Sequence to fold (413 residues):
Amino acid sequence: MKKTIAMQSIVRSQLDQSQLCSFDRKVASAPSSPVIHPNACFWLIRGGKAEILLQGKKYAVGRGDLVSILPWQISQIAAVDDPIQYAVVVYHFDTACHAARLFHTASDECLPIEEQMQRCPVAHLSAQQAADVENIAHILRRELGVESSLSDHAEPLYSSIATVSLLVNLIILFLRATSNQPQPAQAPDDQEILRYLYLHCNEKLTLQKLADIFYCGKSTISNRIMEMTGLSFFDLLNEMRVGKTANYLLYTDLTLKELAEILGYVDESHISKVFAARLGTKLGEYRNTYQRVENICQIEESRLGYSLVNYVYRNYASDLSARQTAQKFGISVEKLNRTMLYQTERNFEEFLGLIRVNRACELLACTRKTVLDIALDVGYHNQKTFTRNFLKYRQMTPSAYRAAVQNGSLQPD
Fold:
């Protein structure tokens, strides 16, 4: 029987849960058990020699190497030839990547951060690159303190801005160092199950859908997840959603109902129950305790995904378009759709359409307004377009939906 894989905390810092990034120092003198990382992290190897496993692939690491681990990947120290000392930077991946892309203007070409990190997770640095990374680590330690020392640390002025800038520098340095390195073979499919779940946990996922994607039976997927994490499929899904929920609470003012809709929960009661059971606190209390939007990241665009979702929710009834929204945020339509897909599993038009149809369902169930009036209320210019979109998301016309709710054959959302 395979041993359950340990899971690190979903928060980046045990001292301050709102922290964008944390810094720590570690040493390993013997092989370790596998670990699941809900957050992204960098390891800067400062001494020693070892063999590590990342997503089931072996890598030899030593002094001067920089290791990148993405959210919900699995790492393990497989063998230690000489005890390794390494600095660990745990960070919020989305914010750091958005900040990096903010300054990338080369014909608006996609900056392949995640793709390259996943393809080549270990950078063998030159002497100059290693010195540059050491300097970044030194400044991060000064900005953040050392997590395991538990000492009081006064946050320097503008620390959040400085931290984002340092993370961007670290990411760019990593991308440069790995740009010409040979690309290792793809990891086995079963090592990618957790990453797929994390990237798609906003959807209404089922075991059957996951089994179809990975070409195996439901029981095989279920057993594999239990063996890796000790959690059932639905418990793991909730664990991932809780992590994303915490970030939305920090970066937006979306209501519980809106968060439930975005993150794949049944309703606001469900999201409250799951969150409280996992973190031992109510969502409102967590938001009041940890929300420091202006301090966490002074650069608005580095929270682009959260800002876009928030904007659509607050303005869905307006005359929104992908082009106008992209212009408002200073990005291309392609980048707008790419960001929305990453954040919500839907492009801009699909997400806007879903929000409008959901709001229309509420009006159809609770008011006597005509279908045309409701279409205009939720942002459509005519009843024909509204009906076509309603059919797409509800597989029935607005009038049929209203009739089904009124006769009791369908429960309103």
Q: What stands out?
A: The first strand starts at residue 6 and ends at 7.
